Amino acid sequence: MVSQSDVAANVSSSADLAAGADGGAEHAPVLGDDLAAHRARLEQFGHIDEAACRRFQRSVEFAGRKWNGAILLAGVRGARRFSEYRATVDGISDRLLAARLKELEAEGVIERHVKATTPVTITYTPSASGLQLIELLQPLVEWDAVHTAARAGGDAARDAG
């Protein structure tokens, strides 16, 4: 089953998808000495106008909307039928899953396929855009792993002192 907390930890299984031609370059953690280098890199993005800011905010909110990541990850892992998504995504209700699948389809990250059988067979698969989104989330997952480890180390040092 895929729970909300599993999404961040398990998107790394899509690292092979994200590796692409560059072989999956490693992302180094941001440390104090690297801060100036990272600021310089961020300056390469240039001025962010209001329209770019809105696009950024919309993208972050879409990717972070509850259940979207778990549903996409379930699709990447092979869920196709509604019942498979429901069994894989731990804790989601039928009503919410149906609503999220419709939203994801409207956004173009999930494709809905209808087969004229008796009874009708409906399947859902991640689109190329959905796979790309999972790939793009991989560096965020890696950042979270480093950030969580750093915080845990700081908490342990503070508790020991």
UniProtKB/TrEMBL annotation:
PROSITE patterns, sorted: HTH_HXLR (PS51118)
Keyword Coiled coil in record: no
Residue ranges of domain HTH hxlR-type in the record: 53-152
Keyword terms, alphabetized: DNA-binding, Transcription, Transcription regulation
Protein name: HTH hxlR-type domain-containing protein
Organism whose genome encodes this protein: Agromyces allii
